[in-house]
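Exercise: predict the structure of this protein bound to 1-hydroxynaphthalene-2-carboxylic acid.
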Amino acid sequence: MEAANSSAMAKSGDSVAGAVTPERAAYYEKIGKKNLAPLWEVLKGLVPAEPRTPCATAMWRFEDVKNMVLEAGTLITAKEAERRVLVFENPALRGRSRITQSLYAGLQLIMPGEVAPAHRHTASAIRLVLDGEGAYTAVDGEKTVMRRGDFVITPNWAPHDHGNTSKEPMIWLDVLDLPTVNFFDAAFSEHLDQEKQSNTREDGDSYARFGSGVLPDGAKVLNRSPIINYPYARLKPVLERMEGAGEIDPHHGARVRYANPFNGGWATPTMGAQLAMMPKGFKGKDYRSTDGTIFVCLEGEGTTKVDGETLEWGRNDVFVVPSWKRYAHMTKNKSVLFSISDRPAQESLGIWREQN
Ligand code: 1HN
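Solution:
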């Protein structure tokens, strides 16, 4: 097998070694039987001169996906499904439950009165609320009611359950580092005895304690944010302030990072999220970085040019820009774009790069 793969790689132009002569082929066949393979036939593919992602640029319009996930609401309950989610599958990575090589993303629906039972897993999750208002998530004994635009964190191994006590369906984007955790073969999960966690902390406790410019004395320093919910209502005025003051990055607009208050770093060690406001008529400069990035339009309308392809986005549309593809945003109206990627993981490995 190894020998056959090596010759296929050679044909695709990854060989540094020239032709696979009959003598070499026979040799590859012989060593292949001992689970050995010649590095020189695959070296170029293993150490490309620059990133060559198999991931494709892709976009999902909320108008389409909303109706499809609502239809799932007539076919299966949240309890039966455990989580009723449509997975955003990168069109070039179908069947692998991922939107980029390292990240999973999906659209979750919870209908009025439903409960998504308590469980925990080693993958970290974030949620960005897109539609509806008033469902809650409970994380580690703290319940938080979610509103549109809220950014909610479920740290790794934290027990979590969701419920919808409102009268409307609630839809949010989930992003998890599942492909990353599974890549390391480090995944565990379990169900909790109680379907719904009992409250051990007051609602809003983590934001009050850690999101107010102080840190409680003696708080244990964590490598991820202790804040469960970063409410959009608190963040939008920050963007307005920056934009109003002209603090507008030529590529990204007026942008903030969802920060870990302990160290100013990213909210989770594997996934980093940002929120950017761009004025009407913004013409962003070209940018690229090694973190394939998921974008969500929270407000406004615009276009993003990715390697010559133009994506047109509006409210709640989701799109993905693969690693190292050049992109530039332009807006028709004042817009707010959420983005998330594996940048913290890459930074901790010292491999993240950007080019302005
Ligand atoms: C999960 O726990 C949630 O808690 C959503 O809402 C999506 C996808 C795979 C594995 C666990 C949730 C998930 C998930």
